[in-house]
Structure to design on (158 residues):
């Protein structure tokens, strides 16, 4: 009988040890699953952040392309305007004199308007108008007087 009791105790001990092993395995599996889910959530957060960065980069690239197209169009318009101005033939002396005074007077008036607006504006208005007025006045000055240099071939004009 002693042998049967020893056999039963061994079976009970082995069963209990197996049951404890199963519980520990399930417990470890639970933590492994949690760790796997946490890793998966972190991966998805990373993927989402990466997609957002790619979207921002694409939006910035699109903005840059639009600005380039706008600038290119502005330069094309400037070139066409200069060509049209060059195509105007010389006329009577007084017409040439009025035409010659138009650019300096318009430039001076534009700078005076820009300065008057800047002096009359508050701080917020100054920051808004300064860039625009300075751009317009500088562009006008350089554009209107930039083509006044000597013509190709050494001719200096009438």
């Amino acid at each position: 009988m002693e042998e049967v009791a020893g056999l039963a105790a061994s079976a009970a001990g082995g069963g209990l040890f197996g049951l404890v092993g199963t519980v520990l395995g399930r417990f470890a599996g639970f933590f492994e699953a949690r760790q796997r889910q946490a890793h998966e959530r972190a991966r998805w957060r990373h993927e989402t952040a990466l997609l957002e960065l790619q979207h921002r980069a694409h939006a910035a690239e699109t903005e840059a392309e639009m600005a380039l197209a706008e600038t290119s169009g502005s330069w094309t318009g400037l070139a066409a305007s200069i060509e049209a101005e060059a195509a105007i033939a010389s006329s009577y002396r007084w017409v040439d004199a009025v035409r010659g005074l138009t650019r300096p007077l318009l430039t001076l008036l534009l700078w005076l308007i820009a300065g008057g607006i800047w002096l009359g504006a508050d701080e917020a208005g100054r920051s808004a108008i300064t860039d625009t007025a300075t751009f317009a006045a500088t562009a006008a000055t350089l554009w209107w007087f930039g083509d006044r240099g000597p013509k190709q071939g050494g001719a200096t004009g009438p």
Q: What stands out?
A: The mean pLDDT is 77.
